[in-house]
Structure formats: structure tokens, C-alpha cells
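Q: Give me a backbone?
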Amino acid sequence: MKFIIASLLCVCLASVGLAQPMAGSPYDAELFSLAQEMGQLGENTGKALVHQYEEIVVEPQQQLEQAIDEVEQRREQDAECVAAEDEQINSIVDAAHEELHVCGVTAAHDSAEIASDVNHATQQLVFGGYSLGRTYQHCQRYKNSVLKQSCMAKFYVKGTIYLVNARSSIKTIKKSTNERIPAVLSESNSCTHVAADKAVVALNEINAEIDSCIAKRR
């Protein structure tokens, strides 16, 4: 999850960098359009991530903690009956925590791969845009019209190549945020909820055993 958030932060920072126009450059409009697209992409995905984080991490953990609390509250009714199940309770809780950890490790590995691709695409956008801006500024310093025209010809070629590559980078980032990230989140969501649900069912069975124990002691 941290890898994904870091990637989106890079996208947002890149959009800020691209939003700095090259005054008078023929590519001002295109660069501004790229900046807007990246900024919106980062903002929309960031909002979705907050919601997904609650579903994947917070909800299963709360579900597990609630089930544990319910068992612990039974000690007030009959400490001995609950104590008789302590070993089993600890085993269930430890197994649940281990499964939740495995879910997190798997998600982190997949997220790292996505982050690498997004960061690479973002670097192409940022450094390519910076290089293009430097070239434009360099051309503007020429006083000789022939040299300036020659420099600007190179600038146009470089700018055209940059915009083609930029669209490819945007496509990579979009695929990551629209397809790959949701897939990782969906898989992680299923993984954590299955682990929590299994533990809750097992703890409910423990509660039933405690009920039976209390009934026999009366």
C-alpha cells in the first residue's frame, strides 16, 4: 500500500513540475494538458485508495478484534471455562495475524512492481519535460537568427518525440491506476477478509464451547 501511495505522490509532483510552462513555447498548451491530466489522475486514485485502505486493513482488523473482545468478556461469566480454551484462542488469533501479514507481504510485492513502472514513466515525463524546457531556453538566447532557427528546428523534433513518449508514459500510469492497482487492492481485500472471517468463525465456535462449559457447571 505504501508503494502505491508513493507512486501516486510522484505522479502528483510530476504534474506540478509540468504545470510550469515554457513561456512562449509552442508546447505550452500540450504540457499544461499533460499536467492537468496527471493531476486529476493522482487526485481521483488517491481518494479511491483511502476508501480501499479502510476496507482492506481497518475493517478486517476491527472484525477480528471485536470477536476477540467478545470471547474475553466471557471471563466475567466463568473465568475457568474461558481459561480452558485459552490455548485454542491464542492459536486462532496467531494464525489470523500470520495470514493477515502474508496478505500484506503479497500486496507489498505486487505494489512494488507497479510503483517501479509508474516511477519510470513519471521520470520520463519530468526529466523529458525539463530537458525540453532547457533546450527552448537555450534557443531563445541566440541573437543570430540563423542559429536560432537551427536550434528551434532541433527543439521541434525533440518536442515532438517528447510528446509521443509522454502520451506513452501517461498510458502506462493510467493502466497502473485504472487496472493494476485495483486488481492488487481487490486481491488484498479478499485475502484479509477471508483471514478475518475464518478467525471469527473459529472464535464463535470457541464461544459455543464456553457456553456448553458454563451450562455443565450450573
Confidence is low (pLDDT under 50) at residues 2-9, 13-17. DSSP finds five helices and no strands in the chain. The helical segments are 2-18, 28-73, 79-83, 86-140, 145-217. Residues 145-217 form the longest helix (73 residues).
